[in-house]
Amino acid sequence: MPDLSHLWQRFVLAAALLFGLALGVGATVFAYSNTAPVTIGWSVFHLGRLPLWSVVLLPIALVLLAGTVFHWLNSLHHFTEHMRHRHRVRELEAELTSVKSRLDALLEMPGHTDETRPEPEPAAASPEAVASNGEDKATKKTKPVAVASDSTKEPEATSEPTAEA
């Protein structure tokens, strides 16, 4: 099944845009159709001669503006948290690299530290010559070892007759 989340997001954005455009067209038609002055009174507060469209549309516009400001402030909070986390990740990565370099220096791992260390002295060559890549296979003799089922070694089989016989 393909992931359709991006298509769903595009659909929601397009639907919101179309709804906003329809709302804007409706508000404009309402404003041009209702230009008669009205008087607004609330307790001791009185406003006179306001156009009807301003009584309806200005509170809606103020609520949308307040919601937008709230959303921006909330997004700012998330942005600052994101930046704080990015800073903390950088600190932890720097600490990790320093711990790795100290561990590599402690374990004397070559190629992981910035410091250059002198190569250790090669071990003294043994007096016996070492065969290289399969040479001297004829001189090498291996003894077969039989292993019992209980993982104990059985005595080695030899071709020499024993003194018992």
Summarize the structure.
The protein has 165 residues and is mainly alpha-helical. The chain is built from two helices and two strands.
Structure overview:
This protein is mainly alpha-helical and 165 residues long. It has a domain at 10-107. Helix content is 52%, strand content 8%. The chain is built from two helices and two strands; from the N terminus they run αββα. The protein has helices spanning 5-33, 52-107; strands spanning 37-42, 45-51. Strands 1-2 form a two-stranded antiparallel sheet. A hairpin with a 2-residue loop joins strand 1 (37-42) and strand 2 (45-51). The chain is elongated.
List keywords for this structure.
single chain; 165 residues; mainly alpha; two-stranded antiparallel ribbon; 2 strands; 8% strand; elongated
Helices and strands, with pairings:
Layout: H1 5-33, E1 37-42, E2 45-51, H2 52-107
Antiparallel strand pairs: 1-2
Helix pairs in contact: 1-2
Structural class from helices and strands? mainly alpha
Share of β-strand residues: 5-15%
Largest sheet at a glance?
2 strands, antiparallel
Going across the biggest sheet, name each strand in turn. 1-2
What is the string of helix and strand elements? HEEH
Residue-averaged pLDDT: 78
Low-confidence stretches: none
Termini distance? 80 Å
Helical coverage, percent range: 40-55%
